[in-house]
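Good morning,

Attaching, inline, the backbone tokens for the sequence recovery test we're adding to the shared suite. The designed sequence is right after.
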């Protein structure tokens, strides 16, 4: 006979976290063919997107007691809609959650916060990231006005991601295979030490070693945010 143990603390914690959650609904889901990337359009009626001046992130409930942060981009404050781009090329609670979402599903999130990555008002804004950073770079570009001040590069092990990013969003960022290629690319760019601002996101090891590399090359205006271990 199957027995289940009632754990009052777990039950209370679950009830409490459920009361703190906000809800939204899935408007559309697109799995980028062969790219390990899932694009999700959301309606978040409780979010005040007019306040989104820094690149935001949303802490979604992706399973029982399990939360993951994802970056909204392409938001429209009038309709309370936005999109996500989730790297689904690996197995993980967040990746698996994104892959099974369907139109009209309800999503739950704990909070919306900011990465403190607001684009400088006049300097060149250089966004650098990996496959988990596509949405972040799109949001950074959305907040950079005029968008001609935005430049950047991505380290992607799946070339289809860069192609689809260009086809769907008209974003032409340098697409590099690894960090070595990125360092070579940086050395060739005419970035001025005084008037270039770097915004680096992605896996923790990439983010910290890139910051060291840029500092060694005399750049001081660098903002970083590690996304995953
Ligand atoms: C502020 C913020 C914003 C973020 N925005 C986004 C976003 O817009 N899109 C997005 O995809 N992610 C984003 N992330 C990362 C996201 O929150 C998760 O950490 C990531 O999706 C991994 O979660 P998971 O449950 O799928 O994998 P986990 O269960 O955390 O990890 C499973 C395994 O997969 C590896 N792994 C995790 N991520 C990757 C990856 N991208 N590539 C290769 N291996 C990986 C881990 O090292 C681990 O071995 C953001 C993180 C932060 C902090």
């Amino acid at each position: 006979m199957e027995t289940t143990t009632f754990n009052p603390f777990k039950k209370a914690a679950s009830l409490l976290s459920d009361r703190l959650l906000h809800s939204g609904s899935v408007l559309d889901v697109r799995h980028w063919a062969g790219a390990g990337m899932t694009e999700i359009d959301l309606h978040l009626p409780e979010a005040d997107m007019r306040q989104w001046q820094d690149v935001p992130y949303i802490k979604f409930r992706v399973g029982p007691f399990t939360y993951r942060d994802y970056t909204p981009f392409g938001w429209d404050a009038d309709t309370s809609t936005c999109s996500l781009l989730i790297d689904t090329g690996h197995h993980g609670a967040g990746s698996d959650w994104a892959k099974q979402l369907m139109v009209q599903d309800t999503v739950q999130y704990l909070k919306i916060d900011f990465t403190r990555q607001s684009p400088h008002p006049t300097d060149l804004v250089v966004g650098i990231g990996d496959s988990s950073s596509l949405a972040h770079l799109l949001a950074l570009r959305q907040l950079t006005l005029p968008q001609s001040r935005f430049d950047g590069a991505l380290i992607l092990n799946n070339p289809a991601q860069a192609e689809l990013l260009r086809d769907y969003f008209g974003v032409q960022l340098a697409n590099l295979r690894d960090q070595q290629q990125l360092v070579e690319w940086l050395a060739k760019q005419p970035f001025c030490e005084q008037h270039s601002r770097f915004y680096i996101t992605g896996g923790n090891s990439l983010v910290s070693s890139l910051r060291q590399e840029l500092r060694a090359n005399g750049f001081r205006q660098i903002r970083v945010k590690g996304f995953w271990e």
